Amino acid sequence: MNKIINLLIIIASLLPMVAQAAPESSVAQADSAYQHERYQKALSRYLDLAKTAGTSSDLYYNIGNTYYRMRDNTRAILYYERALQLDPSNDDARDNLNFVREKAHISVDTGASFFTDFFEGLVSRESSNTWSVIAVVTFILFLCALALYLFVTNVTLRKVGFFGGGVLLLVCIVSVSCAWYLYSKAENQTEAIVMVPSSTLSTAPHAPSAREAAFTLTEGHMVSILDSVVNNSGVQKEKWYKVKSADGKQAWINAADIEKI
């Protein structure tokens, strides 16, 4: 009886190791298929990993690369965007995204000011977790500087504590703001990518007549979702999104034409 119990304990202790080894083995198989240009096989394994082992920025980046190799620029853009949503500091995903967009002649000029674009670019260089770590470290250093100011009698050291503490507190506040901004942006993701070759947007939430056609967007373009309705007037229910394009135009698009990032 004791031998059986001991055997069960050993098996239970090995299960986490087996569970960890399985995804690593699947990743290696997917990477190998990609390197040998068996892209359909690699894609299938990467997508299975996303379902079974969870998502990550690197995994979405690999899926984006695979779609690009399969000459599907639209889905490559979608997965590069998803990689950056999880980790804005993923420079490889950002570079590849910009390359594919340029190749597909897709503009993402939002019309924002230079300072807005600069702030967005600066904040997005790091992930929300990194900004959180910076905030914690600078707050601890601020407490040290505060203690230096309060409990040290040397005038020079007290000045260092006072002014250094002020700078550290400012950095801490900025870091917390950046972390919260990126976290909120990820949690309230409203961006989507047009997935069909061409989509005619409507001034009303239904298939547009000639008079209701607003403008047309081609595949790969990004839109921001503002609102949604379900249209029950047709044979079957259709969901429509009110969206804003990169250049600020607003209209309704069939939900089947886009995919959320």
Overall pLDDT:
86
- The neighbouring-strand order within the major sheet is 6-5-4-1-7
The share of residues in extended strands comes to 15-25%
Number of E-state strands: 7
Structure annotation, total helices: 8
Low confidence ranges: 18-22
Q: Name the overall outline.
A: globular
Give me the Rg, rounded: 25 Å
The level of helicity is 55-70%
Query: Biggest β-sheet, characterized?
Result: 5 strands, antiparallel
Structural class: alpha+beta
Secondary-structure element series: HHHHHHHHEEEEEEE
- The end-to-end distance, rounded to whole angstroms, is 54 Å
In terms of topology, how is this protein built?
Elements: H1 2-35, H2 39-52, H3 57-69, H4 73-86, H5 91-103, H6 114-123, H7 128-151, H8 155-187, E1 191-194, E2 198-202, E3 213-218, E4 222-231, E5 238-245, E6 250-254, E7 258-260
Antiparallel strand pairs: 1-4, 1-7, 2-3, 4-5, 5-6
Helix pairs in contact: 1-2, 2-3, 3-4, 3-5, 4-5, 7-8
What does this structure look like?
There is one protein chain. By secondary structure, this protein is of the alpha+beta class. 59% of the residues lie in helices and 16% in strands. It has helices at residues 2-35, 39-52, 57-69, 73-86, 91-103, 114-123, 128-151, 155-187; strands spanning 191-194, 198-202, 213-218, 222-231, 238-245, 250-254, 258-260. The strands form 2 sheets. Strands 6-5-4-1-7 form a 5-stranded antiparallel beta sheet. Strands 2-3 form a two-stranded antiparallel ribbon. β4 (222-231) and β5 form a beta hairpin. α1 packs across α2, α3 runs antiparallel to α4 and α3 (57-69) packs parallel to α5.
